[in-house]
Amino acid sequence: MGPLDAETFLSLENVNVARGENVVLHDVNLSVKKGEHIAILGPNGCGKSTLIKTITCECYPLVKPGMKVSIFGRERWDLTELKKKLGVVSAELPGRPTLGITGFDAVLTGFFSSSTLWPNLKVTSEMRDRAAEVLKRIDSVELTDKVVGEMSAGQQRRVMIGRALVGSADMLLLDEPSNALDLSAQKDLRDLLRGLAQDGTGIMLITHHIADILPEIDRVLMMREGRIVADGAKTELLTAERLSGLFGTNVGLVERDEFYFAW
């Protein structure tokens, strides 16, 4: 990859991925720079989540001539080390072990990629200082001592973003982040992500909700049937005609306050 490595978060070349007997990603070529703000858009089942799992090394590409995967300039990673550099926020709400700990401790688990603070994990004073800093950054200091299981879905999502940020704030990978959130919580989430983007945090957002695409996101990828079918500027790709073709139905589109809304 040469001299671009220092600026490149992700480089995929000729990537095909199988889930079971079926190939679900086909000939994916993608380059994403550090600090870039990008949305990956497509209908359910188009391969968006498999793409995220490929980036996090939960799914492995088929070995074929010309295939290459590079993350932060490296082709091989210790998965524990990689998880500390990749801030991943899934659509799922926290699991049972996380529900019983405080917001502060939930953020700390991001240092260890664990679901809770198991007895064998050593938390340093530097980690505690960083966790407190992150809670302030995501405007969630009031959740420091609140048990995760007693939080609203929106509060839990904020804490999970803090957990993703605590180890490294280089890139956030968000998989359908507004799922299970009511309208108020969706707005709070978008405001939070806008602030992070404006501060320089890179964002890769996987969604099929057009309203999730922040004003700070200027690049859009469209996926259909496991392929990237379009990659370009948001202003060029977010049109009623393009979206109708992507989702296979007539789509109406309106822009207001730099957000796009579809129906």
Quick structural overview:
The chain has helices at residues 48-55, 79-85, 96-99, 103-108, 125-137, 153-167, 183-198, 234-237, 240-247, and strands at 8-19, 22-33, 37-41, 68-71, 86-89, 171-175, 202-207, 219-224, 227-233, 253-256, 259-262.
Write the layout of secondary structure elements.
Layout lengths: L7 E12 L2 E12 L3 E5 L6 H8 L12 E4 L7 H7 E4 L6 H4 L3 H6 L16 H13 L15 H15 L3 E5 L7 H16 L3 E6 L11 E6 L2 E7 H4 L2 H8 L5 E4 L2 E4 L1
Parallel strand pairs: 3-7, 3-8, 5-6, 6-7
Antiparallel strand pairs: 1-2, 1-4, 8-9, 10-11
Helix pairs in contact: 5-6, 6-7
What does this 3D model show about the protein?
It contains 9 helices and 11 strands. With 263 residues, the chain is an alpha/beta fold. The protein has a domain at 1-72 and 205-263: Rossmann fold. The strands form 3 sheets. A 6-stranded mixed β-sheet has the order 5-6-7-3-8-9, sandwiched between helices. The chain has a 3-stranded antiparallel β-sheet with strand order 2-1-4, covered by helices on one side. A two-stranded antiparallel sheet has the order 10-11. Helix 5 (125-137) packs across helix 6 and helix 6 (153-167) runs parallel beside helix 7 (183-198). It is globular and about 50 Å long. The protein starts with 7 loop residues before the first strand and ends with a strand.
Tell me the strand percentage band. Answer: 25-35%
CATH superfamily of the domain at 1-72 and 205-263: P-loop containing nucleotide triphosphate hydrolases
CATH topology of the domain at 1-72 and 205-263: Rossmann fold
**Count of runs of 4 or more consecutive helical residues:** 9
Strand order in the sheet with the most strands: 5-6-7-3-8-9
Helix share, percent: 25-40%
Q: CATH top level of the domain at 1-72 and 205-263?
A: Alpha Beta
- Judging by the overall fold, what is the CATH architecture of the domain at 1-72 and 205-263? 3-Layer(aba) Sandwich
Radius of gyration equals 18 Å
